[in-house]
Design a protein that fits this description.
The protein has about 325 residues and is α+β, with helices and mostly antiparallel strands. It has 3 domains: about 100 residues, no CATH class; about 110 residues, no CATH class; about 100 residues. It contains 6 helices and 18 strands. The longest helix has 19 residues. The protein is elongated and about 75 Å long.
């Protein structure tokens, strides 16, 4: 059994040997998992075992148990039996205990993701405390991990993944975050109870939820300032956002290229952008925003610098439409 005091692994110097750094990361993740969920009973987290018996990665997950007295965290691999006890974790950077615990009236939903996606989510650097708790209280199953939370919780996590992917400069990390965004956005949400053993999931309980992502191409169907016939003067009016933080639009004789910031407003995916382009061959620029609606449509507003502005409504682009 590996007995450790987390305080000995905090603020390690830059030149610390690799094995010590990996052990510090592992212990920190165990503490995050154990404190992200309630204490008092053992449960299987989505953390993978770090051992490599026979030079092969152990397929086990880390089960954790946090007792109130004494304040110790016990962990054990579900396959190889590697185990340990951690003390000195209270009020550390890794302590995710919610200072505002209370009843949650929202119906929880379960999302099944792969181990690779769960690992990418734990690697996000700028999650707020609520999203971090959501990620680290994911429970391990044979096929990956189950993330349990309210629909608003899941929406906020998706928005956080999109925002970090948009600003990530490392291509490898960006690809991992893009894959995690797609997996979370497209995974079915299943009514769940948040129980300790969520598998197997009841396939008859699939819940059809509203769209989760704003990235993609949208058909502008109406604008406050111009009538519908004018919108399609040059081609079908549209606005498009990609996951890398850029995009474009076109309506009437206006074309613009967008610099976007994906965010969330009242739990709904939204985007704020500045734009630069042309209005009937004259240079034009401005700003705008758009927000996903409950019915799957998009509503937003476009502003022209020192000029007009107009609200707009859009629906997902359908194949066969030409610009």
């Amino acid at each position: 059994m590996f007995v450790s005091d987390l305080r000995h692994f905090l603020d390690l110097p830059d030149d610390v040997p690799g094995p010590a750094r990996r052990m510090a990361d592992h212990l920190g993740s165990v503490v995050r998992a154990a404190t992200a969920a309630g204490g008092g009973s053992p449960w299987e987290s989505a953390l993978r075992c770090q051992r490599r018996p026979g030079r092969r990665a152990c397929p086990g997950h880390i089960a954790v148990f946090r007792a109130d007295l004494p304040a110790a965290i016990e962990w054990r691999c579900t396959v190889c039996g590697d185990e340990g006890v951690i003390s000195g974790w209270e009020d550390s950077y890794f302590d995710l205990r919610d200072p505002r615990p209370g009843p949650d009236d929202d119906v929880p939903v379960d999302i099944v993701v792969s181990d690779e996606v769960a690992t990418a989510l734990r690697d996000l650097r700028y999650l707020d405390s609520d999203c971090e708790r959501l990620v680290f209280r994911a429970r391990g199953i044979q096929t990956g991990a189950v993330i349990t939370g309210s629909r608003d919780d899941i929406d906020r996590l998706i928005d956080a993944v999109a925002a970090e992917a948009n600003h990530e400069t490392n291509r490898t990390r960006r690809r991992r975050f893009d894959a995690a965004f797609e997996a979370l956005s497209e995974a079915p949400q299943v009514d769940g109870s948040g129980s300790a053993d969520p598998a197997p999931l009841p396939r008859l309980a699939l819940v059809k939820s509203r769209p989760k992502k704003i990235a993609g191409k949208w058909r502008i169907t109406e604008m406050d300032h111009w009538d519908a016939d004018a919108l399609d003067l040059v081609g079908p009016a549209y606005i498009e956002f990609d996951k890398q933080g850029s995009g474009e639009f076109g309506f009437i004789a206006v074309t613009g290229w967008l610099d976007c910031r994906h965010t969330s407003t009242d739990g709904r995916p939204s985007v704020e952008f500045s734009w630069d382009g042309n209005d009937d061959n004259d240079r034009a620029s401005g700003r705008g925003w758009a927000r996903l609606q409950d019915d799957g449509s998009l509503r937003g507003h476009v502003y022209f610098h020192m000029g007009d502005d107009s609200g707009f409504a859009a629906t997902p682009w359908e194949d066969g439409l030409d610009r």
